[in-house]
Amino acid sequence: MFKMNKAAGQKGVKLCAALLTAVIMITGCSGGSGGSSEGNWVSIEDRYTVNPEKPAWQLDKKEEVTDLTWYVNADWWNTDFGKDIVTKKIKEDLNINIKFITGDDTKLNTFFAGGDMPDLLTVFDSNSPVVQKAATWAMPLNDLAEKYDPYFNKVAAADTLNWFQLADGKTYGYPNYSNTQADYDSGNIPAKTAFIIRKDVYEALGSPVMGTPEEFENVMKQIKEKFPTLIPFGFNSIGEGTGSLGDTLQDFIGVPLETENGEFYDRNQDEDYLTWLKTLNKVYRDGNISDDSFADDGTAFEEKVKSGKYATMLLDGTPQQGGNLQIYLSANEGKEYVAVDGPQSTKGNAPTLNQSGITGWMINFISKDAKDPAKAIQIFTFLLSEEGQLLMNYGIEGETYKKNADGTVELLPAVKDLQLHNADKFKKEYRMGEFMFFGHDRHKALSADAFPEAIKQMQEWGKGKLKPHFILENISPNQGTPEARALSAINAKWNSTLVSMVRAKDDASFDNALAAYKSFLGENRWDDIVKVRSEKMKQNKEKLGIQ
């Protein structure tokens, strides 16, 4: 889920400036060029009559293909449409053609500066001005459903719609992987974080324990000695955030989510966490963390995963790396990566692994410039429905999967074989499990085939270790405020500080970097930011009924 780039500090400053620009642009726009301030409410009088009991895509008699543009604020998104089995079926059933456009925050801002707005738009930051000011440029899903497709309300989660409700009482965006407490309680949500080690390395070292800092440091030395061609320890690409060395490591060792009296807790300065960062610094100084790991982008990291270059990894986003891990497993049976307990809390805390919360991940909107908002809301309804979820995850019944008597599904043998032994071809031709704008974990629980074999043991290891982070969702200061600007600078400073601490040449350099960061907090409204976050945590608890 991380956007990958090298210059984390510079990017943080640029992102802050871009978002500030977006605030100005969004506040002053009415949905791009040529769009009505109220949206393009087309008539469907000659197409169909809405029916609350039937999805509109099954009723719509529009004969010509509807061409739609869909902007995704991520350079890595696969822009193909209609070539693989999943999107080809969507194209046929809904009689649409989608042109995907991708980009970054700079590209996103050009739309709000007067460029032609896309019909649909997907972003990833729920706290951004794009999301918070959605009423100025997007069409309300409540009204779209009422006018064009009331069946939407049957497939959309009421809790999720309420969570995204803006001050006007309407909801404009809907995410994927929006999990409620009930979803967590169901046991259907698999862990996405794991400390993994190559099986051949693990067995050669006698299945070592790595729970304490001393044990971890010692095992890294053993790996370097016995497997000199491998990088002993790797982690997700640093990117804009801190890779898996930030909150992922904090979750792994169970750093508290709040203070004892329910206020915001600065997890970056937790004693347990800092102890492990000092350990990683020692591992780095021993030559067992590569300098490349701090510069690699997402593609470079993935290539190393595919080739098994890392002996061990703290990996966040195992499903996202599932294809790469499967490619490695298929070519190296017996040497595949397996999850083990790895680093543990020095305080005795249990892991509090995070998964998608109620905010989800990809947030999808229909713009006021949408050429055919009726068809656009039909896409939302279709992909949220049972039919759409089965298609996105498993393809077409009888062609790629079969249903069992107990309600579970399984891939057909030839499809399963391709998934196991030719992951690249499977991804290109089928795209199942990838086209997930409105995906949800509960549908993945329907089948053992929902995830590649390479990560199933990792998910099994994670059972019982998940803890919802609902209270920490969307607690950053509102964009455009002094606190928000200060936080952007603080986040950029922390990214560079964390790297400096792990790469410090000695203990004194480590301590100096941390001390400089603490001073920076004091100079940049940190106390005010903590107050804002604590207040928003309180609001989250009230919204969710958490005592």
Automatic annotation (TrEMBL):
Source species? Paenibacillus pabuli
| Entry superkingdom | Bacteria
Protein's UniProt name: Carbohydrate ABC transporter substrate-binding protein (CUT1 family)
PROSITE patterns cross-referenced by the UniProt entry? PROKAR_LIPOPROTEIN
